[in-house]
Amino acid sequence: MCTIDPQNNARLNILERKPPRGGKCGVLPSILMFKEFADRAESVISASDRKLELDKAYLTLIGAVFSNIENIPREQYKTPHDVIKFENYHRILDILSRLKIACLENSRDEAKKRYRDHRRHYVVRCLGRPLEKLSTFFEGIESLISSGMKPDVVGYRLEYSKTELRKCIKEYPGKEVKKGLEKLYRRVERDVTEELGLLQVVWGSMQEAFIEQLRHFKTLMDQCYPGSNITLEFSIEDVLEYFGSISQSR
Questions:
Q1: Is 88 helix (H, G, I), strand (E, B) or coil?
Q2: DSSP label at 20?
Q3: 236-249 and 199-224 are packed helices; what angle lies between their axes, rounded to 10 degrees?
Q4: Residues 82, 25: contact at Cβ < 8 Å?
Q5: pTM of this prediction?
């Protein structure tokens, strides 16, 4: 028999259940409890005259699950906080998408939004500035342009001359870039729970963010050094090969 009472111990149990301290966090026990409850309730009660009562219970329990995800202590696990959140919001999104419960459609949409937001935050923080000197160089250029300098005049500034740009570019041959990406992949492997199947999704997001940076650099080079034929020592096609070979070799 499936008992429904949103005011009973179910919500409290969900809020109190925590994964073991240390190591990767993975899926929170509260999500597994919600799934177990929903599977049982849908098979027993969903078509009965207690449907309204069941919907109220769902809304109470999903609120407790969201609260549980949001309130995980940062210092409790080795897993980065954004990873804990995007992994668990992804899991609850998967559950809600499968169940197709009408009263939880807004919760499903919110879970999708939070999953994507926290995954994006993790990618940005983890990727950082992989081409540090080039990033600093182009940020300086953008600052000049923002202050009113025309792009095609920037190269006449000594610190942003073609010679200085070429020096920065030489700091990042393709071989070194690939080494940096291999180090990045090892970090993502440590952070992301492999069993949830999100490692390659995150790695794909890293690839998109990295290529976006390269395209931004190219746009600035085309604007500020027209006709110079200055390019990075690796291409976007090279980067695609780096990302693909790294993920396939692990």
A1: helix
A2: P
A3: 160
A4: no
A5: 0.85
